[in-house]
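User: I want to check something. If I give you two sequences, will you return the structure for each one separately, not as a complex?

Assistant: Yes, each is folded on its own. Here is the first sequence with its structure:
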Amino acid sequence: MQNYSELHQLISLKIANTTYGTHPKELYEPINYMMSLGGKRLRPILTLMACDLFGKDVNNALDAALAIEVFHNFTLVHDDIMDNAPLRRGQETIYKKWNMPVAILCGDLMMIKSIDLLAQTQNTNLAILIQVFNDAAAKVCEGQQIDMNFETRTDVSHDEYIHMITLKTAVLLGAALEVGAIIGGANEIEAKHLYNFGKNIGIAFQIQDDILDSFGEGHQVGKLIGGDIAANKKTLLLIELMAVVHKDDKALLNQLLSEQHQEKKINGVLDLYAKYQIKEFAENLKKQYLSEAYLHMQSISIAEERKALLIDTANELMGRMS
């Protein structure tokens, strides 16, 4: 089996050697620019790992892995427009470097190209691959809309939040693994266990990201600590605080949420998080989803040493975030 760095090199070479078109250049240059910005390439690597897990040559899954990565980057192009974000991975976003119409059209074409890449997969039931891929793609869009809906609501529940991050973030990790497993020759039950492994890992990752935004170090998170608090973003932490805060602290919380002085706001909410043990709640929930993920991995009838790379990758990624 190939290790993480070998698979990263393989997908990076595939990305570098793939062209999406040349004319009109205003349409294709942004795609090449976006795909060259780098990143962890986690999703396509998971696709290759899943194929490798079942003993097939990972080269069989390269086109599908790139399809997953192109789709993921398409979502980022459009997310940057919706978030009015000027930077992505330290570089100008497409709509800032070019303009918004170019970014919209470029994203649309990236979605089309991702399906084209998936269709190049050989010796696999393409209809099943497209069904898995399109189901995940639709759910990502649903999750994004639900997340935007939360911005105007004050009554978001735990279950609604977990549902949103499952759709917006976790299902694509699951689908990346399921696609790779199918190409690798897994049966339907094994492929679904791998999907659920990835989905639950994805939920745990997002909970960890929420925790780090409030309690991490700046170099870990790569952004200003407390940014979610400053933006009144409805993370798991804030939702839990709203659910458990005593009535005598409710007025204080409402005052803090409308506070214009950012440092005072962040510190005040952090004090309430500490008082109501919000971090501990989130850590425990994260552990529950990790445990659920590993139960699905244990249900796959493959030698433990072959599963080790995937499990170690999940543990390492979680460790880097903690």
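And separately, the second sequence with its own structure:
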Amino acid sequence: MKNGYESINYWSIPGMKTYSSLTGLLSIFISPLYVGMIFILNRYNNRQPVTFADLFIGYRQNLGNILLYSIVASILISIAAMLCFLPVLFVFPLLLLGYPILLFENASVGDALSKAYNIAKNNYGVFFLVSLVGFLLSLSGIILCFVGIVLTAFFFTAIMYSTYVAYCGKPRPLIDQV
């Protein structure tokens, strides 16, 4: 006899499949906003003026690769989550630099995955700790009555950008690509 959460069939709950599908689609279609936040951080770091339109650069530049990267990363994280929650903590650091690489290097999905993986595997301890801090910040947003999710989303993109700058160097200003 199973006790606790093991006996619950989550997929049999009415609306769970629809909810999961819509949440997954929404997360894929807002992924260019993460790229936009990284772009804003880069403009701020280069002391350039920031506009509201900068948030949407991910929809204007390299959109197909950003969406495809988001799908691939979601699949990898979902597979890790099915194994248990712990593997997600070990997979996510390998994907941390993907969005900055897609933005600053205008790379393809394969190139972004390959480069992010190679950089992260050589510095895995640092990437793991940085990802863990980002995860804990995001978790604190959920704990703070969901209001904090909006505020902590910027911290995680700042972690992605800072890690990219630390390991790949400060990217050049992207004035000509806007």
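Because they were folded independently, the notes below concern the second chain alone. The chain has a mean pLDDT of 85. DSSP finds nine helices and no strands in the chain.
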